[in-house]
């Protein structure tokens, strides 16, 4: 890594995690609370015990945890799986395998971004890092 840029790595890592968490949270808020145009048939929230309702719960609370960097690795792994299932269930089933034909780019990108976070963790600017250091949050 370029030494001049290496000092920015913790900030870039945190910005990546926070941005993806925030964007993901907004999809959960859309499904769970009906914000941003809603997800239900009338533009409101999705039915809580439907697959969209469960996805909304995962996205809303998982997005918050990712933004905070709290339990990042296990939560990111679960969210990567959710997005992989969404890709194959909702997108491939409705438009073929390729993302440009099935409108599944976001699901694929979220899946791989969360898979990445599940392996590298939250980084040094996170609640996880503070907990690991034994500091109070």
3D structure, described in words:
It is a single chain. The protein is mainly alpha-helical and 137 residues long. It has one domain. Helix content is 71%, strand content 0%. It contains 7 helices and no strands. The protein has helices at 3-6, 9-33, 51-68, 72-95, 99-102, 105-120, 127-132. Helix 2 (9-33) packs antiparallel against helix 3 (51-68), helix 3 packs antiparallel against helix 4 (72-95) and helix 4 (72-95) runs antiparallel to helix 6 (105-120). The chain starts with a helix and ends in a 5-residue tail after the last helix.
Record keyword descriptors for this entry.
7 helices, 71% helix, 137 residues, mainly alpha
Q: Classify the secondary structure makeup into a structural class.
A: mainly alpha
Tell me what portion of residues adopts beta-strand conformation: under 5%
Number of strands: 0
Inertia-based shape: globular
Low-confidence stretches: none
Helix content: over 70%
